[in-house]
Amino acid sequence: MYRFILSARWIGFAIFVVVLAAVCTRLGLWQMHKLEHRLDRNDVITAHFKADPIDLTKALPAGAKVDETSEWTRVRATGTYDVEHEVTVKFTTRDGAPGADVITPLVLDSGDAILINRGWVETENNVTRPDVSEPPSGEVTVEGWLRQNNGAGGDAVKPNGGQVRAVSSEGMADFVPYDLLDGYVNLQEQTPPASDDLAAQPHPELGQGPHFFYALQWWFFALLAVVGYFWFARAEAKERRKPTRIDGFAPAKERSPVS
């Protein structure tokens, strides 16, 4: 009844279904791996949030890189803001409103500096750098969250008219007269406090994301491919069992009985 599935056409169809189901299954597992990675990362971030701030030089020694395990570490640093080399990050939105992040280097006692994201200001995004209030003068102590450089590169991270499109200590390195530590800090508190109205950076989203439901979708597609193969095979078998007309005569079961 089902010998037709041994034909070249049906063998090719079966191979296609197996490959499709395998790919969809693998993509589902990939999404579950991403979910596991995200949950592990959430645990690391939560632990950083609960910890007391540590000195920046201990969290990020000179030459060290900010990685996923150190990102969102709560740090404290003391230094002097270098307003002359301040930049704004354009095309930064909050709740649908256009604006810019304000990035100011903080020069430490060692002579090195760390980029500080002082906050966000609502402004129209255009070629002109927005006017922002200056930070406190003299020595300040800041607390905030250590962040990795933005993944962008090229012209996006190089200052142009006092503006960039992404934050990167590597992109800023050639535009300041001192060494920059890796990454940057999202400012949360500082002493003395600033007189500006910059909005602090929000905490990261610690949800699970869509990965679990994406995995279910891929596994559903894999199941659908296998079920579809057997459905088409059954339909083909039923079609082959139907009686056929020969030389213009109806099948025997359709002929009128002889009187």
TrEMBL record:
TM region(s), chain numbering: 212-232
Places the protein is found: Cell membrane; Membrane
Keywords: Cell membrane, Membrane, Transmembrane, Transmembrane helix
Membrane topology category: Multi-pass membrane protein
Superkingdom as given in the UniProt entry: Bacteria
Keyword Transmembrane attributed: yes
Major location (coarse): membrane
GO cellular component, one term: plasma membrane
Family: Belongs to the SURF1 family.
PANTHER family the record matches: SURFEIT LOCUS PROTEIN, SURFEIT LOCUS PROTEIN 1
UniProt name for this protein: SURF1-like protein
Organism expressing this protein natively: Aeromicrobium yanjiei
